[in-house]
């Protein structure tokens, strides 16, 4: 069965998704008898449009020169094309704007308003307007999925179905790979924050403006999504009490180490409170993950702690989470039988 | 909605399940509008039967004296009562017989033959007759779920749905809490295998006959189930190459330690092979879990490694996995709307 897809954003995540859709075309046909037909790829200044399906190999091969393709329509916008194209699922992968959530927020609202199921790897709209989007999806009888927004490929949201009878009491997580990398390097190398940050930037793990990562706002946004999804809360990012890691000194880390502890930047949801803050954890705790991994520990009523660990970032990692969401929707819509 | 349940086995897992069903009665009614009515509890020498639903509180309160209850029917068997009682789901929790899988295997076959959905915490039937049971369930259009058989409450099987578009390439896991506890103690305390085993037995982690645990057969059985479920294989326990941990010496552990490694009893599924064996892993590997935890690392094509960690045993832990299976079936059967 053909399922028409609109991809919004051709950055690292969008391009990785195109690559995987291409690689896995046969796998999807064989395993699920489904064919995802990308009929539009939207960028900030126009769109690639082919109602019969874009040749994804051509798009990959031409790399950054995709605007030269004959089916590039300058200034075309998502909001303009939905009435002309038959779109079953829209995939929103534009960069997160932490203040407004735009343009992702408008894209998702427009999709839902037009009865188009939506998948988002952009977390801004979710941590800013979770309740509004959830209600809008329900009102329009649409699916809105966003596994990639938290810990990328790690199924921090999808695991909910597998734990459906469990009462999840609290969440303790490491949700930002950059700040975890910095703390890990400070711990193992004894270097100070500034040096570790510089290293992270040189390796491409940290942005030139690392504020969102090291000051905890990125983790706070993800924590909001986790808590709303897994604990059934209705929080916004402004409800999170946030403290970054820039004040953590080598000396503090050394002191902790002497007594068998390490310092981690934890995102915690418990007792109706959301907190992102540097905290001591025991060296032997499974949460003591190194490098740019992400981890989530769920405290459950009858099953104790359950932990999930994996890569928290990366184009292919996010694209793989998006694909899981696509299959999830396709199963429930009956595109897959 | 009322859903009639037959519970087979009133051991630690069965009793924990009764306790949780009692505790969560209101929660299930409120959250899912479902009422699990246990109309039969089967033991080796008879059964508690009440077609209107057994008073679970009474069963818990009377503890080991349940055979004195007026609705105890001596010598009643599961196979005899299915025609008389309306049973939607049967829950098999008898102890694992690693050679024959009985009586669990016959219970599950009888349930499926009679169009009764089945949930099992007994792994023997699954690792001995996986293909047969899978086909029988399909033939009878029944659900057969067994989350509790591998790593207890940790959703090692249920995570499949959350990773449905991922290509899982290989599995590396620690699936036996007893052997992991013994290796952990040998590592941290520098004691030898015999002493660590004795300690595990005194703490109740190891059986008086620890062969199944320390020689790797328990882990091998679980590995078969994991590989068949997550990789789509059709293996039996006889396909597993097994080596236990009883030959691991303190000296070996010391040597490994010097170079930053620890020895873990790994269950590995890759390249169409199943292996349970002691292996070196890096100290900083997230698989370096201590105590009686279980862990599973899935290697995926686009998302790298994804890890799940949690308690691998315990009555309430297994019961919580059974409950998730119950809800899974109830959703798909439309008992939950």
In the CATH classification, which architecture of the largest domain in chain A applies? Answer: 3-Layer(aba) Sandwich
CATH fold-level label of the largest domain in chain A: Rossmann fold
Distance between the termini of chain A: 10 Å
CATH level-1 class of the largest domain in chain A: Alpha Beta
Percentage of helical residues of chain A?
25-40%
> Quaternary state, please?
homodimer
Which strand order do you get reading across the main beta sheet of chain A? 4-3-2-1-5-6-7
**Biggest β-sheet strands, sense, barrel of chain A:** 7 strands, mixed
Report the count of strand segments of chain A: 13
Q: What string, H for helix and E for strand, traces the elements of chain A in order?
A: EHHEEHEHEHEHEHEHHHHEHEEEEH
Largest interface: A-B, 47 and 46 residues
Taking all Cα atoms into account, the compactness measure Rg of chain A is 21 Å
Q: Which runs of chain A of at least 5 residues are low in confidence (pLDDT < 50)?
A: none
What does the overall shape of chain A look like?
globular
Name the structural class of chain A: alpha/beta
Number of domains of chain A: 2
Count of alpha and pi helical runs of chain A:
13
* Mean pLDDT score of chain A: 96
CATH level-four homologous superfamily name of the largest domain in chain A: NAD(P)-binding Rossmann-like Domain
Strand-residue fraction of chain A?
A: 15-25%
